[in-house]
Every structure is written in structure tokens, then in C-alpha cells.
């Protein structure tokens, strides 16, 4: 007996003329909506992260600027303060003979320290009033 070759059935071939149904459109729109939602949430998260990073960067820049200003002020103060002390000593040295001639040098006495205000006297606490009782309810005549 001769055995003939059998042809295997081909796997399910897609139909050549598939039509798009309302179900296909509905499922595609659901997928699109889910994808849009996911991307919107991810975009919002990325934006929030960028805002946080920008805030940190601004804080760091402000801190650096403050440090630079404080350092510059301390530098200027270090240069100016000795000159002010020197100028003050020079002015006092030049005025000393004039004050001696006028006889004003010895009269200078330090001011007495100013006294602060006296604390206000405490008022006697007023007695507490009792809470007012509501008026008694009366029955209406019909």
C-alpha cells in the first residue's frame, strides 16, 4: 500500500477581508485613553520633580549669594575699621590742646544710665459676672 502525502492544515490564517467594527473602535479608544492618562500622570510627576529641583537650585544660589555678600562685608569691615580707629585717635589728639585751653577736658563726665519706665500697676481683677439665664418658655395659647 502506498501511502500518500497528507497536507497539514495551515494554522488559522487571518481573513483577508477583516472589517473594523464598533467593538474594535471602542477597545482602541480605551487603550488610547489609558495611555493618555498614564502619560499625563507621568508628565505631572516630572514637572513636580523639575519644580523641586529648581527650588533647590534657587535656594543654593541665594545661599551662595548671601555668603558672598557677608564675606565681602567682612572684608570691607576689616579694612575700614582700623582706619576709623586711627582717624578717631588723630582727631582726639588734635583737639586735646584746644580743649585744654578752653578748660573743657576735665568737665566731661559719663552720663548716668537712663532708667527704664516703671512697670504699670496691676489692676484689680474685676469680679466675673454670672452667665445670663435664658428666659423661661411660655406655652402659646391656641
> What share of residues are in beta strands?
under 5%
Overall number of strands: 0
What's the overall average pLDDT, rounded? Answer: 83
Parts with pLDDT < 50 across at least 5 consecutive residues? none
Order of helices and strands: H
Given the helix and strand composition, which structural class is it?
mainly alpha
Shape: flat
Helix content: 55-70%
Q: How many H/I helical runs?
A: 1
Characterize the largest beta sheet: strand count, sense, and whether it forms a barrel: none
* Separation, N- and C-terminal Cα atoms: 119 Å
- Rg, Cα atoms, Å: 47 Å
Question: How would you describe this structure in keywords?
Answer:
1 helix, 142 residues
Question: Brief description of this entry?
Answer:
The protein is an all-alpha fold.
Describe the protein's architecture and organization.
This protein is mostly helical. It has one helix at 22-102. It is flat, with a radius of gyration of 47 Å.
Topology readout:
Blueprint lengths: L21 H81 L40
Amino acid at each position: 500500500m502506498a501511502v500518500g502525502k497528507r497536507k497539514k492544515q495551515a494554522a488559522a490564517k487571518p481573513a483577508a477581508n477583516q472589517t473594523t467594527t464598533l467593538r474594535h473602535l471602542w477597545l482602541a479608544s480605551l487603550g488610547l485613553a489609558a495611555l493618555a492618562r498614564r502619560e499625563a500622570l507621568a508628565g505631572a510627576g516630572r514637572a513636580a520633580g523639575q519644580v523641586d529641583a529648581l527650588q533647590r537650585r534657587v535656594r543654593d544660589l541665594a545661599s551662595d549669594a548671601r555668603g558672598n555678600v557677608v564675606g565681602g562685608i567682612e572684608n570691607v569691615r576689616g579694612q575700614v575699621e582700623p582706619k576709623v580707629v586711627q582717624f578717631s585717635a588723630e582727631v582726639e589728639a588734635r583737639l586735646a590742646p584746644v580743649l585744654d585751653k578752653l578748660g573743657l577736658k576735665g568737665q566731661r563726665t559719663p552720663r548716668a544710665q537712663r532708667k527704664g519706665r516703671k512697670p504699670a500697676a496691676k489692676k484689680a481683677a474685676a469680679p466675673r459676672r454670672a452667665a445670663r439665664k435664658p428666659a423661661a418658655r411660655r406655652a402659646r395659647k391656641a
